[in-house]
Amino acid sequence: MRRGVTPDVLTDQTSAHDALNGYVPTGVSLEEAAELRERDPQEYVRRSMASMRAHCEAMVEMMRRGAVTFDYGNNLRGQARDAGFDDAFAFPGFVPAYIRPLFAQGKGPFRWVALSGDPADIYRTDELVLELFPDDQHLRRWITEARAKVAFQGLPARICWLGQGERARFGVALNDLVARGELKAPIVIGRDHLDTGSVASPFRETEAMKDGSDAIADWPILNALVNVASGASWVSFHHGGGVGIGNSLHAGQVIVADGTPEMRERLERVLTNDPGMGVVRHADAGYETAVETAREQGIRMPMLDARF
Amino acid sequence: MTTTTDVRVIRAPRGTELRCRGWQQEAALRMLMNNLDPDVAERPEDLVVYGGTGRAARSWEAFDAMVATLETLADDETMIVQSGKPVAVFRTHRGAPRVLIANSNLVPRWATWDVFRELERQGLTMYGQMTAGSWIYIGTQGILQGTYETFGSVAEQNFGGSLAGKWVLTGGMGGMGGAQPLAATLNDAAVLCVEVDPRRIERRIETRYCDRMTARLDEALRWIREATGRREPLSVGLVGN
């Protein structure tokens, strides 16, 4: 700031959600922080909060100087507002600004795991992604770099964001690979509960919805029910997640590509309807990209034409 | 009988030999176990997978009961799991899910941490996080990928699809934030990440998530200026607060 330099993009992922055990106030070393935290926790929190206020004020100032600024889900804005900075919410949260446009296309964190335990099976599926979506440079970059730099933990797994239509195509193609014996064992396909149509969470995934439907929790319940009806291998419905008790409800599904014709049908159904609920949720809230996606992908919404 | 004081190391079976009556059940068994693999879980001895107290099963007794149930579950049966404990097996049909799970749910008026922790203490519920109690956590790859998509979306909406020649300023290189340097350089940015704890930066340099480290702001800014000038990706961890 004092040097008069302004970044192009500005955000923050310090542990601002926790003023005592997470954030370290400015001007304090790690050792001093540990000592102060022990000796006078109230004073520590006071200094943390004051520091977060200054931190957030500096971010708003840089935003006014032209930096593309967003909150990265650590509640820095909320803390700064509590510390008396009225303008703390001048910059947006990352979900409404940058994730929701992806959600509106049914895109979300799609993952798969090789039950064989053999990394070669995942490398074959990496190639399959590139074969199916050859024109997506962003996806190609991810798959290539993930293969080079990401170490597997437990059973080998891969993750990438795929949208409405793409998930079903890829799932069916994975099942065909298993059926042809190109993989040593079946593949498990699942996703985070943080996905397009599977979570109601007004502090994160459904912050500032266009139609004000942030706290409506019918959507994740319908998502779970649709996945049961469509024939997922296991379905879950949870409360709390990353934002805590009272703050969110969310659903998950996992489906196993075992190479059988029966699972091929179920994969096609589940991987169409699961993200489909997300497209519908966002189209219903008035997001135009979601409306377009619903139309392009042939999702029937009985009251869509009446509204748009 | 196993007790909770024993140190148990759980790891999913590999290969094509089945312990269960079909791949659908075998998949649930392996993914339940994989969530407790010491390479995957934060505190496997307490059944905690990630996110503070997100568990794969309510207790070791419940874990053992789920494993035994999955091993004998038929192709037309469904195991019902209530907050990490298997409570029933029902005859359903082949096309139905083999497992149905509800975790941590409370009636809205009672949905507070105080009530939850009291019920958890009484052994009536458990915290399922998102993918802990639903057996599909895959470790930290998901965090890197999510951050990659976020920066990609920033590039798409503000800079015509690429962060080449752009400077990203951020803070925090802990469990979540530590993915930022690599996620930004994968989008071709020059990224400066401020972190108070030098050990966290060192760890990210060792795993090649971050390129360079310094405690001098002027040096960091010079590196960033040079990288943006050449439109080259670069990540710098700056020790500071």
Features:
heterodimer; A: 308 residues; alpha+beta; Rossmann fold; Urocanase fold; 2 domains; 6-stranded antiparallel sheet; two-stranded parallel sheet; 11 helices; 8 strands; 46% helix; globular; B: 241 residues; alpha/beta; 4-stranded parallel sheet; 3-stranded mixed sheet
Write structural notes for this entry.
The complex is a heterodimer of chains A (308) and B (241). Chain A is globular. Chain A is an alpha+beta fold and 308 residues long. Chain A folds into two domains: 9-91, Rossmann fold (3-Layer(aba) Sandwich), CATH 3.40.50.10730; 98-307, 3-Layer(aba) Sandwich (Urocanase fold). In chain A, the strands form two sheets. In chain A, strands 3, 4, 5, 6, 7 and 8 form a six-stranded antiparallel sheet that branches. In chain A, strands 1-2 form a two-stranded parallel ribbon. Chain A has helices at residues 30-39, 41-64, 76-82, 94-103, 119-132, 137-149, 166-179, 218-230, 261-284, 288-296, 304-307; strands at 9-10, 68-69, 108-114, 157-162, 187-191, 199-200, 234-239, 249-257. Chain A starts with 8 loop residues before the first strand and ends with a helix. Chain B is α/β, with parallel strands linked by helices. Chain B folds into two domains: 23-121, no CATH class; 141-239, Urocanase like domains (Rossmann fold), CATH 3.40.50.10730. Chain B is built from seven helices and nine strands. The radius of gyration of chain B is 23 Å and the shape is elongated. Chain B starts with 22 loop residues before the first helix and ends with a strand. The model of chain B has no long low-confidence stretch (mean pLDDT 94). Chains A and B meet through strand 1, helix 4, strand 3, helix 6 and strand 4 of A and helix 1, strand 5, helix 4 and strand 6 of B.
